[in-house]
Amino acid sequence: MTRHLRVDGPNHDDRLDHMAQGVLGQPLNRLEGPLKVTGRATYAAEARPRNMAYGVLVQAEIPAGKVLEIGDAPGALAVIQDKRMIHYAAQGQAEKAPPSGPERVEYMGQAIALVVAETFEAARHAAQNIAIRYAPETVPVIPESVTPELPPKKQSATGDLDQAMRDAAVTVDQVWHTPSQMSAAMEPHAAIAEWDGGHVTVRAGLQMLSSNRKQMADALGIRESKVRLLAPYVGGGFGSKLGINAEAVAAAIAARELNRPVMVAMTRQQVFDLAHRRSETRQRVRLACDANGVLSGIGHDVLVSNLPGSEFSEPVTQATPFTYQAAHRQIVHAVSRIHRGCAGSVRAPGEAVGVTVFECAMDELAEAAGIDPVELRLRNIPDAEPVTDRPFSSHKLAEALRDGAERFGWSARKPSGQRIEGEWFIGMGMAAAVRVNMLVESRARVTLHQDGRAIVETDMTDIGTGTYTILGQLAAEMLGLPADRVEVRLGDTDFPPAAGSGGSFGAASSGNSVYLACEEIRSQIARTMRCDETDLTLHDGMARAGNVSRPLSELIDGQITAEGHLQPGKTEKTHRQATWGSHWAEVAVNRWTGEVRVRRMMGVFACGRVLNEKTARSQCLGGMSFGIGIALTEAMEHDPRDGHVVSRDLAEYHIPCHADVPELEVHFLPERDAYVGPLQAKGLGELGICGAGAAVLNAIHNACGVRVRQLPATPDKIIAGLD
Amino acid sequence: MQITLHLNGATHDLDVDARTTLLDALRHHLGLTGTKKGCDHGQCGACTVLIDGRRVNSCLTLACMAEDAQITTIEGLGSPDRLSPLQQQFLDHDGFQCGYCTPGQICSATGMLEEIAAGWPSHASASLEGPFALSHAEIAERMSGNLCRCAAYTHIVAAIRQAAGADDRHEDAA
Ligand code: FES
Ligand code: FES
Questions:
Q1: Architecture, CATH, for domain B2-77
Q2: Which pLDDT band holds residue B170 (cuts at 50, 70, 90)?
Q3: Residue A535 C-alpha, separation from nearest chain B C-alpha, in angstroms
Q4: pLDDT band at A14 (very low <50, low <70, confident <90, very high)
Q5: How much of chain A, in percent, has pLDDT values that exceed 70?
């Protein structure tokens, strides 16, 4: 039996609050945790089928043009140059494979061949020494060097922003730049492909198996039913594993050709070239307000880039239309077509850099207007979505601001440059956090056995997000079982297709599908118990209705299996859905070296129902640390001559390390959002990053008076601003 | 070439390419995939193992260099039903998310606590002589060779401090 729900209306009955088991929301340890801390969880490259060969990708050394000839590779089993090899990774949720054909180069570093050998060492050696002849072409690689496209659907204007800027008591009009950024998940992309007749099984690092399966089938030119994908454990994704990438397709092609299993693992450097980068952005923000800080105008004018023909463009302004009120508004979204590696989703596409910059602009406006930054934001929270007048599904920004200010000790903040400890300037900064919320179609199967064990199966992935654990807790709660009686099976396309992990929609979408399956099972038990499902209490393997109490083993004949199927519905149109929060940072800036140390950092977040307090907190810690990276250290430098990524390893691209991250503090605001399905939970994987960097940058200004608008705020830029 | 590795208390004879790193010997030849490859260049710490008790990046070590040593990998520190104290604290504090950097963090922390016990100072130490407070700053400094993109850092440091018996979690607000 399948229970289906389209989320067309609100759900106010708080069913999960009336369940009896009491495990949902609890800070339980991760179900798969013991495997991970002992090295027993196996990731993409960690199966060892018999007779496996090793493949190493060969990369283009020209920014664009044709591959004329690929030389021999002594010591190799094969050099694969197949027309089905893809140019770059598929975008998230794409149903088709990306462009293919390895003879055509679109950017420097593109995979153009695969060398396969008996050992990894031999394959690497051969790949590094292969001779290639090209017919190179000259192409633009700098966003400002071309006339950008202005996609009509991405521009919008209301009122007259220019006039509002002229009339305003206080204005800000500044330009910020953020560099290309990389997800840099710790597990490099890898795949092991193996054929059995016409069927291929590919084990890979992937976030969204159901769409990845379509992409893979399309890339290989076979039917979807002939493709099985496995991703039981994924060593981080952050967007980089949303779509299939070159290594997986090449592995499948090679395995077919050689008639044996083939593993292809990208090197770290290849990940920087081949995983989607977050586009660099140029953002002009214009703000106009009256003497009381009430906004009259908001302008957000952005330039991003991508390869010609690539549909994705970093949705920088995604949250700008609804975060603050103003009568006069304008959004400009320009896309330069250049030949840097493909741009795509990196954790919180849009808001990660858009909210960060916008919240820096708000800090500048607060300063110019002589109003406390928290107060400025409080004065501009709209009652409904500006322009459309749609109601918010829930709105917690004001509460997050007030709660955060109190907890962080915001009232102790001094004017810029006035707190000095030895050679350090000390400052505090804050920012609002906001991220759009969405649901995506998702299915799950739940089986309840007579002996009081349940099994959850869905092709959902756990990329560190806690999915195994929260889905287990959810089923345990609904079915009245101790959490350790539930087994969760993920990451296999043989299971019902799920939303996948992306866009912060994974937990809520797959969670709702598990909820629905369990609701169906509950209904069947209720029928046996001759009561309404809503009158049924399940607890520790016992079913209760009125004064009748019976063990599940008496009520179930063998097992009950049900499928849950969730689809987003009208509420995504009728209501503006978002998650909200606030970020707080205290930094020290060295007056001689310009070094910035984050001393304290705190986030207050509202994301609907929290499914596991412990794993939810970890999601936020991760997002906030990404924010530190965006503010202070992370930049992919592109060579201005050919666009190639110069900082293409972890010694050159600086993700935050232990010493960069202080003891972070996270608080959740209790919330139930009625418009996002019966789970009443929203996304959390990305909210922590949205605006976090702004709190750090604003704290730098409060410490030492320097505004860095060319991110990241490295010491050289800070020293240049210090007198 | 023929080599012999002494690993987690057992002895393994292997036939490997001379260019094989210890990391690849573990992962490709011995099927011990608990030791992770994050960069293959000594930049991330995911491949950390203990060689004669000291933490080492196995990606920067050729397998043939490790022949005479005692090697301990994450698999040798504990198993799912017999966690080491550090593994248990990582689990309880959620000192990981995706789990990919985790074996390296745990091996590194194991070696790091030995270094503190042996009286080795760090950049964050108040003095060169010790004793060293197991402060957040001290642990974070010493663990900075182990990157975690999920950024479980706050929880990792808490886990290590608890396993090492540090008492006041908040002693070092600076
Ligand atoms: S894999 Fe050895 S340090 Fe990164
Ligand atoms: S837990 Fe994912 S990289 Fe550390």
A1: Roll (3.10)
A2: very low
A3: 36
A4: very high
A5: 100
What length does chain A have? 723
Do A660 and A695 belong together in one domain? Answer: yes
Interior angle at CA A130, CA A127 and CA A131, nearest 5: 155
Q: Is residue A358 part of a domain?
A: yes
The whole-number pLDDT of residue B168 equals 52
Q: What's the CA gap between A416 and A721, in Å, rounded? A: 14
A46/B33 CB distance under 8 A = yes
Tell whether the model's pLDDT for residue B174 goes beyond 60. no
- pLDDT bin (cut points 50, 70, 90) of residue B167 is low
The span from the CA of A344 to the CA of A322, in Å, is 23
CA A323 to chain centre: 20
Identify the three-state secondary structure at position A295.
strand
CA of A418 to the centre of ligand 2 (A): 38
Q: pLDDT, tens digit, for every residue of A387-409?
A: 999 999 999 999 999 999 999 99
Half-sphere exposure for A8 (CA within 13 Å, toward CB): 3
Instruction: Give the DSSP per-residue string, A38-68.
Output: TT-S--TT----TT-EEEEEEE-SSSSEEEE
Q: What is the ipTM of this complex?
A: 0.97
Q: Is the pLDDT of residue B169 over 60?
A: no
Choose among A142, A143, A183: nearest CA to A274: A183
User: Does the annotation count A637 as an active-site position?
Assistant: no
Residues with beta carbon inside 6 Å of ligand 2? A 186, 236, 464; B 96-102, 148-150, 152
pLDDT of res. B172: 41
Q: How far is CA B47 from the centre of its chain?
A: 8
A125 contacts B19? CB cut-off 8 A? yes
Task: Quote the minimal CA–CA distance from B83 to chain A in Å.
Answer: 7
**Residues with Cβ < 8 Å from A405, sequence gap 6 or more?**
A374, A411, A430, A582, A584
Decide if pLDDT at B119 tops 50: yes
The answer as to whether A664 is a domain residue is: yes
Token readout for A364 is 């500048």
Asked whether residue A85 is domain-assigned, the answer is no
> Boundaries of CATH 3.10.20.30 in chain B?
2-77
- Is there a contact between A446 and A456 (Cβ–Cβ < 8 Å)? yes
Closest CA to ligand 1's atom 3: B42
Residue A703 lies in a domain: yes
A186: nearest CB among B38, B83, B174: B38
CATH code, A560: 3.30.365.10
pLDDT at residue A723 in the model:
78
Numbered ranges of CATH 1.10.150.120 in chain B: 85-170
* Residue-number span of the structural domain to which A640 is assigned: 350-438+574-721
Amino acid in position A103 = E
Domain B85-170 has CATH 1.10.150.120: yes
- If you average pLDDT over residues A76-91, what whole number do you get? 98
Among B103, B26, B108, B18, smallest CA distance to B65 is for B18
Most A CBs within 10 Å: which of B21, B93, B94, as the mutation test of the A interface?
Answer: B94
- Ligand 2 midpoint to CA B35 (Å): 13
- Output the pTM of the full model: 0.97
Using alpha carbons, list the distances in angstroms from residue A373 to A366, A380, A418, A699, B88. 5, 11, 17, 11, 43
Q: With contact defined as beta carbons under 8 Å apart, do A447 and A488 qualify?
A: no
Q: How far apart are the first and last CA of chain A?
A: 71
Which token pair is A195?
Answer: 């054929």
Model confidence at A641: pLDDT above 70? yes
Give backbone dihedrals phi and psi of A292, rounded to 5 degrees, phi first: -90, 5
Please tell me which residue of chain A has the smallest CA distance to B33: A46
Chain A: closest CA distance from residue B150 (Å): 5
